[in-house]
Design brief:
Helices cover about 0% and strands about 50% of the residues. A hairpin with a 6-residue loop joins strand 4 and strand 5.
Length: about 120
């Protein structure tokens, strides 16, 4: 069984910064073998992909609205994924989910293991 746990969410002012973390572990689960991604779901909206990173951390991809503001990274030695969120706006308010999968991209179907999410709320 794979456990995925997000942390770091909270209340942040518009224009501020926040860093999300995600750990993933389990029996016969090697974090460094999996592509990782962040998704988010705002109230009343469908869940959308935010960013993904390859298993070795070389390749990254961002959804257009977060390019230049968010940075995804990972530390395979610590089994941890990060999302640095800078210059946040009200539109970034959402539940943020971490996911692990074998495929590459921002489609939910590509990811097999999911966390329960961490809430990010941006105040004006």
């Amino acid at each position: 069984q794979v456990q995925v746990l997000e942390s770091g969410g909270g209340l942040v002012q518009a224009g501020g910064s926040l860093r999300l973390s995600c750990t993933a572990s389990g029996l016969q689960f090697d974090f460094g073998d999996y592509n990782m991604a962040w998704f988010r779901q705002a109230p009343g909206k469908e869940r959308e992909g935010v960013s993904c990173i390859g298993a070795k951390g070389v390749y990254t991809h961002y959804e257009d609205s977060v390019k230049g503001r968010f940075t995804i990274s990972r530390d395979n030695a610590k089994n941890t994924l990060y999302l640095q969120m800078d210059n946040v706006t009200h539109e970034d308010t959402a539940m943020y989910y971490c996911a692990a999968g074998a495929d590459w991209g921002l489609m939910e179907s590509m990811y097999m293991f999911w966390g329960k999410g961490t809430q990010v709320t941006v105040s004006s």
